[in-house]
Amino acid sequence: MRRSLALVSLAVTSMVALAFLIPLGLMVRQLAEDRALSDAERQAGALVPVLVITSDPASIEQALTSTTGRVAVHLASGQVIGKVKATPDQLRNAQQKGLASTEELPDGLVHLQPVVLDEGKVAVVEAFVPQELLSQGVLPAWFALSGVAVSLVLASVLVADRLGARVVTASTELADGARRMEQGDLETRVTPSGPPELADAGGAFNRMADRISQLMANEREILADLSHRLRTPLTALRLDSELLGTDNNANRVRQAVVALEREVNELIRAARKELTDPAGSRSDAAQVVHDRLVFWSALADDQQRLWNLRGTERSAWVPLTRSDLAAAMDVVLGNIFRHTPEGVGFVVALFHQPDRVVIVIEDAGPGIEDPETALRRGSSSAGSTGLGLDIARRAAESTGGSLVIDRGPLGGTRVQLRLTRLGDGQG
Description:
Blueprint: H1 2-53, H2 57-64, E1 71-74, E2 80-81, H3 88-97, E3 101-105, E4 108-116, E5 122-130, H4 131-134, H5 138-182, H6 196-241, H7 248-276, E6 283-284, H8 285-302, E7 307-310, E8 317-318, H9 322-339, E9 346-352, E10 356-363, H10 371-374, H11 388-398, E11 402-407, E12 413-420
């Protein structure tokens, strides 16, 4: 933008400068010619009184010494005093017409001044103007005008560049602020600057950022409050589960209650952490995947499901909170237990790529007939709410990744959570 403004200023100012420079240059040349011709006419006119008074060649020659040496006199007797430049035809026309005239020569101009004497005789005064006198001072004047024009153009471009820099600096700062806000930095603010319109846009951006921060803080507070409110019924449920006895079913219920209580506590901690540290939305995907498999393994063993976990030996940091990633994992794993018969096995694998972390969950069940419909929010053909896979998809897309559903090597559904990977220093 800054360059465009400078180029526009250069083009416009150059056209304006040329519109004045060309006529002024021609005028300067014309003035130089008029000045040289006026001087020649003055010298020729100075000899007219001499010719009227006397026709003595010696007196006339004496009068010629006061001229520039480019003046000649053609007496009525045919005698010529001085150096002749005019052609015979030009002299004859001047004598016959009796009118002063200026004629062109190969090396300049000649001014012919007829002088009518007694008895109808006509003498002619010839004043020669060489070509160098016709253009004397023109070239320096042209250089001076060109210098003025170039200075004006450069000054105009400089002013346009300064104005453009002011606009570009303000718009660049605003764009950088929007980019940081897009990356999750809710503390981003800009300093309103530049033209009034951009300054107003900067102020509106700051007000928008304040409003977003306030809404997100309120949302996290609500989440934390709801989580706290769940503790009361959870406590009652835990106390009731302790009265169920000691068989396997009772133990499984107690384990589920403990796990549920742990998840509620995790929600509270995550909400509080994001409230005090909005930039802390990151987690180790390897650790989260491992923990969720530990949680679901008890139910899998109880249903005699063979399962396998691979790729969680080293850390894989992603820009997603632990609770959000755990919720996405629970959605996909829960679908396996909900929509496949008992005894159907599954595999969970985590793949490390340079810029991606791919979590693959596949089962040996019947598969999903229409994966595209399954991803549509609120759509389900199995009697569920149809929100689970959409939750997982939005979690993946929030990192700049995606969720892909297809059929895997085991013959059933394969779900791939493709998450953007954070650098080692960002974990």
